[in-house]
Design a protein that fits this description.
Strand content: over 45%
Number of strands: 24
Shape: globular
Length: about 475
């Protein structure tokens, strides 16, 4: 692991701007800031414009004064942050695993509303990921994590390049921030309405093994958010995966107000469209939120093909601030049916490099999660988490099947499908910035797994401990 400290310097950041705080959704360390934002929404009576997430955040929602490495001085300079991270995973009756990561981020603001950002990393854990398809060097996976230019004003925000984003709610079923996408996005705000659009190029898929012919793939999405009152926001969205051999970006999918689903039906292109809505409602010190994601839903029952099960996802949750002194609580439930995000043609799957563009656990599961978070101070919180998850045998990358066509009459299937793996987890953790330049996140607890790896009666009960340590160094060039 020490070779990481010998071979590399990297680029890194978060900085104060005229528009507030510019904070990319980039590192695990930033999650402590988002928990501050969620809490301060109520304490300061300032709603967070999630369509601008994760780039521009009002000063009233996050306090960066305690973090030395973020105090970079004038934004007229090029600001750089270097970080060294060590992750340690300890599990009962298992070998201890350790990974190191080096990262560097660069930020510049040449004009009052224009920003440039880039981050680069070398990561041992990424190199061990079976889904990683990039180059490796001496056991390391490296690359440019994010690199983009952005513009921000009160009514208009735009970003172009490689970036992470989420739409609607942080744990979005539509578009999560688990991986960056290459493309552009913009939002236009007018009175109580906000119109947002994003286009991205996805990974290509080979038509035939051993040939050099590939199917191009693209993501396009648009949404409109309506602030019905100061306390209630609802968002309507649509997205599409399209592409194929020789297909490029098409002008109809550049239209932010076109109904994609109807247009692709008329053109008979068999692209994969998705619809849904999300909402947030604030009441005193509470927030109720939810999102519904519809891949395919059968309304009519005119043919055997209409027996296809509904492919939908739903998440709902409630967040309560200060149930006791400096203590917040959150409950959530997420459910995504089998075959959601999947499709007949692999090119139309809702994926980037075999991973979901939406929720990270993809499909055929449900999850109940409860969190209690106590803030010792602005830099430190203690978190108790209890969760129960059922995971079916379905996968977003499974070959498409249509068993409802093999029978006559009604068709139904269990949820989740097959032999269901069931995980019960209780963990206690602490997250803290120490001495202004160091971050520590430690959590440990108990994990019980029934039908592990979807094998009947294959059970495991174990204790675990995870350590996450990061050191920062910043400078202005």
């Amino acid at each position: 692991m020490n070779r990481l400290f010998i071979f590399i310097f990297l680029i890194g950041f978060a900085v104060k701007t005229d528009a507030g705080v510019f904070l990319p959704l980039d590192d695990s360390e930033h999650r402590i800031f988002y928990k501050q934002i969620e809490r301060n929404e109520y304490l300061n009576h300032t709603a967070f414009d999630y369509f601008k997430a994760p780039w521009f955040i009002p000063d009233s929602l996050v306090d960066l004064s305690h973090y030395n490495f973020l105090q970079l001085g004038s934004t007229e300079n090029v600001n750089v942050i270097f970080s060294v991270n060590d992750r340690l995973f300890i599990k009962e009756k298992s070998k201890t695993i350790s990974f190191e990561k080096l990262k560097a981020k660069l930020f510049a603001q040449p004009f009052s509303n224009i920003y440039f950002y880039s981050s680069i990393s070398l990561d041992e854990q990424k190199a061990e990921d079976p889904a990683y398809a990039g180059k490796k060097w001496r056991g390391l996976a490296g690359g440019i994590d994010q690199s983009f230019a952005a513009y921000n004003s009160k009514s208009f925000t735009a970003i172009a390049g490689r970036f992470k984003a989420f739409w609607g709610i942080e744990k979005s079923l539509l578009l999560s921030a688990e991986q960056p996408l290459d493309g552009f996005s913009y939002s236009v705000k007018w009175k109580k309405l906000t119109l947002s659009y994003q286009l991205a190029k996805l990974n290509q898929i080979g038509l035939t093994i051993g040939t050099h012919f590939y199917e191009n793939r693209y993501f396009a999405g648009h949404r409109i958010d309506i602030s019905l009152t100061e306390n209630f926001r609802i968002g309507l969205f649509e997205s599409v995966i399209f592409g194929g051999y020789g297909r490029t970006v098409e002008f109809n999918y550049l239209n932010p107000v076109l109904y994609f689903h109807a247009d692709q039906l008329n053109d008979n292109t068999n692209d994969n469209t998705f619809l849904g809505f999300d909402f947030t409602y604030y009441y005193k010190k509470s927030k109720l939120y939810g999102q519904v994601f519809v891949d395919d839903m059968q309304i009519e029952k005119k043919s055997q093909g209409d027996e296809e099960p509904n492919e939908i996802g739903i998440t709902v949750g409630v967040f309560q601030t200060d149930i006791y002194r400096n203590t917040d609580i959150e409950f959530s439930y997420t459910r995504i049916t089998n075959r959601t995000y999947n499709q007949t043609y692999p090119k139309n799957r809702y994926t980037e490099n075999n991973r979901s563009l939406g929720y990270y656990d993809a499909n055929d599961f449900d999850l109940i999660n409860a969190e209690v978070r106590h803030w010792l101070n602005k830099n430190t919180n203690l978190t108790l988490i209890a969760s129960y998850q059922r995971q079916g045998e379905g996968s977003i990358n499974d070959p498409w099947t249509e068993p409802w066509l093999d029978i006559e009459g009604d068709y139904s299937e269990e949820f989740p499908t097959g032999i269901v793996e069931k995980r019960t987890k209780i963990q206690l953790g602490v997250a803290s910035f120490v001495a202004g330049n160091f971050f520590i996140n430690a959590d440990g607890g108990y994990l019980s797994t029934a039908n592990k790896f979807h094998i009947e009666s294959n059970s495991e009960k174990t204790l675990f401990l995870n350590l996450y340590l990061t050191a920062f160094l910043s400078t202005a060039l």
